[in-house]
Amino acid sequence: MLAFIRCKSTQKTEARTNEWVQLFNGKDLNNWHVKIKGYPLGENIYNTFRVENGALQVNYDGYNEFDRRFGHIFYKNPYASYILKLQYRFIGSQVKGGEGWAQKNSGVMIHAQSPQSMNVNQDFPVSIEVQLLGGLTKGKERSTANLCTPGTYVLINDKLVTAHCTPSTSKTYYGNQWVDLEVLVLGDSLISHKVNGKTVISYAKPQIGGEHNTLKNKEGEPLTAGYIALQSESHPVEFKNIYLKVLAFAK
Asked: Do 213 and 114 form a contact (C-beta atoms < 8 A)?
């Protein structure tokens, strides 16, 4: 298995600390790497991840059925401490065969294992997930920027959280409006999520372990750094204005 963190020698020349760096140029998927369950790294089946009108779009118009082909598109470099900001929105309808819980459901994976180290049939990278949800039924709350933990644990109020997902305090966003997301990541200490400028959840001490952990030999290790990935879970979604301010590089 490849190393959990694979730093690039060019990373420090591409981004300086305390400067906003554009991760997605609105034109192509250069510097991003696709990993879809059941397929080798780099195989972007049915053009799932594409660029449309300046947005990075997850689209299923080439699928007859989703068939649990969960996908992720990884930015090329790992980072340790940073602020990530972007806008997202759900569009269209869920593809046939998608899980019921995956309707208007996507995510931003942080502190993720490298795509090269994932098993070909692995559902999700070991990571912290900033879960993105859209409202389905008027009057029924469905918060966004929640915390999910595929193969990981965190602490909230100094207590170990073993539940797979923890809801945030955000409001519910219906329709296809753009939503602003900001994530503060401080290595293996503090992580917090903001939605439209308001902090909605904070937690600390991310570590490897629990359900969906495919890195058994690293159980209990702190997550000090990792990759950033955007998710494909069966509902079309768009991302744009993806920027990163580096606070500390991965070592």
From this structure: no
pLDDT tens, position by position, 137-165: 999 999 999 999 999 999 999 999 999 99
| Nearest Cα to Cα of residue 152 among 189, 117, 116, 127 | 127
Provide the pLDDT for residue 14.
Answer: 56
Give Cβ neighbours of residue 142 (< 8 Å, ≥ 6 apart).
Answer: 104, 133, 134, 135, 136, 172
pTM of the model: 0.93
Round the CA-based radius of gyration of the chain to a whole number and report it.
17
The Cα–Cα gap between 100 and 133 comes to 13
The domain spans of the chain are 11-249
CB 148, CB 129: distance < 8 Å: yes
Dump pLDDT digits (tens) for 9-20.
334 445 578 899
d(CA 243, CA 21): 5
Q: Is the dihedral of CA 22, 27, 29, 31 positive or negative?
A: negative
Q: Is 11-249 in CATH node 3.50.80.10?
A: no
Which pair of tokens denotes residue 218?
């690293």
